Amino acid sequence: MAAEPEVLDELHRLRARVPQLTGALAASVDGLVLAHDTPGVEPEGMAALTAAALGVAVRMADATGQGDFRELLVRGVDGYVATYAAGTSAVLTLLAQDRVNVGRLHLEGRRSGSRIGELVEAATARGEPVTPARAPTRTTSLPTRARPARGTSRTSTTPTPNTPRTSES
């Protein structure tokens, strides 16, 4: 995506405006990294978790009649994770220290989300793909694990017939 350097510049400017930010990530709504400034955090994993959280947030807002998704805030013991809509096809996720001014976080996060949304939509209008120009690299593949079928036990036990018992009087 040709807008990737511009999105990354926006993330850097955002981190300069809010010094308590420890990371910033722009991703597509389906969990692909567009740009990131996330020292010490795997961006692909963070983008995937953002997409999962976004799915729940969108459904919750819809089910409760609150309208379209705008933002999501999670507070942990050591800080915040905030996700903001960035147009219709991207999101901005920010990591912040516990001492951040949450009002400032929202103000700057909303502004940057709007700017990133404009950059992504402009790139899309020019016919550029919304995914990053290079695929994420992995040096090793993740191990796969066979999962038992639904309704089956993980341990090997002798199955018992599923017949109801009746009491005879």
Helices and strands in order, then pairings?
Elements: H1 4-17, E1 21-28, E2 33-37, H2 43-63, E3 71-76, E4 79-86, E5 90-97, H3 102-125
Antiparallel strand pairs: 1-2, 1-5, 3-4, 4-5
Helix pairs in contact: 1-3
Q: What does this entry look like structurally?
A:
The C terminus is likely disordered. Helix content is 35%, strand content 21%. The longest helix has 24 residues. The chain is of the alpha+beta class. The protein contains three helices and five strands; from the N terminus they run αββαβββα. It has a single domain, classed as Beta-Lactamase, CATH 3.30.450. It comes from Streptomyces fagopyri. Pfam families: Robl_LC7. This is Roadblock/LAMTOR2 domain-containing protein.
Which topology does CATH recognise? Answer: Beta-Lactamase
Helix content: 25-40%
Given the helix and strand composition, which structural class is it?
alpha+beta
Q: Strand count, sense and closure of the main sheet?
A: 5 strands, antiparallel
What is the CATH domain class? Answer: Alpha Beta
Strand content: 15-25%
